[in-house]
Structures are given as structure tokens and as C-alpha cells.
Known about the structure:
Blueprint: H1 43-46, H2 48-78, E1 84-87, E2 91-94, H3 95-121, H4 139-156, H5 162-182, E3 205-207, E4 224-229, H6 239-246, E5 248-252, H7 261-265, E6 271-275, E7 287-289, E8 294-296, E9 303-305, E10 311-314, E11 323-324, E12 326-328, E13 334-336
Antiparallel strand pairs: 1-2, 3-4, 4-5, 5-6, 6-11, 7-8, 8-9, 9-10, 12-13
Helix pairs in contact: 2-3, 2-5, 3-5
Amino acid sequence: MSSQDIPEENLPAEQDTAHGTVALADTDNPFADPGLPPHEHRVQDIDDRAAKRSERVVAFLFTLSMLAAVGFIASYVGIPKDKPIYVWPLGHINALNFALGMTLGVALFCIGAGAVHWARTLMSDVEIADERHPIAAEPEVKAKVLADFKQGAKESALGRRKLIRNTMFGALTLVPLSGVVLLRDLGPLPGTKLRHTAWRKGKLLVNMNTNEPLRPEDIAVGSLTFVKPEGLEEHDHDFQVEIAKAAVMVVRIQPQNIKDKQELAWSHEGIVAYSKICTHVGCPISLYEQQTHHVLCPCHQSTFDLSDGARVIFGPAGHALPQLEIGVNADGYLEALRDFAEPVGPSFWERG
């Protein structure tokens, strides 16, 4: 159906008097504005039933997008990641990948197709000529932009066509959930495991070089010894994960040279045990200066004073090294009296 088949009184009023006007070129104006061709009304402009059909099509596309987004989430949760499926002509492919790709593709396509069909069939398509204007916005321009925005909002019929509006909002709300679900692949939540290590009350301090438990007499003043908790062996499948938190350095300092009262209370005859993991980015600390009792991280030169609670005296580290409270058991071996009182290593968002 064209506008020529509709009585003149049923046609929408023209919004631009420039339609159909033509300026002829002459010697004074060789580049005359040819004007705009006569506006052709769409069937939806002159037939309310056609407009309703277009509205239902747009709503159907947005609803299909919502169903596809729900299908994406259901596929991600319910389909095993190693399940194969035969799809002609692709052959045998991974069922989960196929389902995720199809559902997400349909969800995004339907939103785009619905928006395009809405714009092409229901929004105003009247051609409007607008003169070029300076870049700087004048008050009149701002007022015009605001008026155009209000006019566009009115012509979109977003407020009047509630079915399209509600289904569009539903589609735009559910599709982003597809990306949120993918965050599950980042791994399980850490819970409280970052706050705890393999150290427990009664765990012996085992020399990492000799793999033997230590007695106080094994540690000389000014020496640096690296230890691990009893029972943690290198052939364990989680050894690297656990030692990254449980690695400890043991130093013997003359008790009168220890400045921090808690450090002295948690030591044994001047033997102090501190985490070996730097509190900057987690590098292993390995350099010790026995005259100053300073330890240095070789990565970024963070320096800690082991005679004063392992506080930071230089470098980018944010806080002191955690201390392990130690004592001696009935057999004369050094043992831990508890786990670290605070998380070891670099700071994280819920440190405390």
C-alpha cells in the first residue's frame, strides 16, 4: 500500500515544507540546493494495524533475546564442558561451546534486529534539513537540541508502546548476565585460605636444606636459615601452593638487640621467625645483613628491620613481615605455637 492509495485527509501532516521544492541553478547560483524529494509515507504511518504488527514483531525479537540469554546461562551451568555433539555440516564439536555461541549470538542479534525494525517501521522517518552551525554551542542551539530530543522521544512512542519498552528493557537486562556468568571461570572464591598457612600449633621448624627439625643450638647468632612446616614435602601435589605462604626465615639475634616487645615475646632465646614472602608483590626474601639485622627483597629492594618487628624501612612494601610465634617442645626442637596472626605476602582487598 502506498500513500497514493490513501485519501488525502488520512495522510499525516507534512512536517517539512521543503519537501518537493526545487531550486534551479543559474549563473548567479550554479550550485543551487535541489531540495528534498516528496516524502513517501510508510504503511505503518497510515495503517494502525500494520503499526501494531510491527510492534509485535519488535516485542517478539526482544522476547526471543531474553529466552536466548536464559538459554546461555542454562547451557553454561547444565552442559558438561567435555560433552561432544554432532552438528551437520560441522561434524563433532563441543556441545557447550556450540550452545554458548548459538544462544549468545541469537540474544545479541535479536536485540539489534528488534532495534533496527523498530527504527525503520515505527519511528519517524521524515527527512529534515538542518543547516551547518558553529562548533561552539549557543543557547539557542542547546534549546534546539533539547527540543529535538523531546521530539524524538515523543516520535519513538517509547512511552505509549509499553510492550516494546518493557521487552527491550528485559532483553538489555538479561544479555549482560551472560558475561557475569563467565566470571565463574576465574576460579573458585578464595574464602579464607589466603589468611591461613600450613603452620599450626606443634608443627616443627624443618630446615629446608637438610630436611631435619631444628634445635635452638643449631642456629648461630647472625645466621639466616630457611624453614618449612613439618609434614610439607616437595613431592606433595600442593607443595608450591603451600610453601608460597608457609616459607619462613629464622634468624638469631641477641635478645638485648630486639627492640619490639611482641617480637621478643614471640621469639625463643633471640631466635625469631618471620615470613619469607615480601609484602610488596610476594617475592622471596633472601638477603640478610647481620650487623644491621636488615633483610632485603631482591626484586624491588624493600628492606625490613628484623630487630624491630620486621617493619619496612625502605622500598615499596606496604607493611611489616608477619612473625611466626615459636617455642621449644619437650624434645628440645623448635616448634610453631600458632599460625601467622595475619595474612602473609602482598596486601589484598579484604586483608585483616
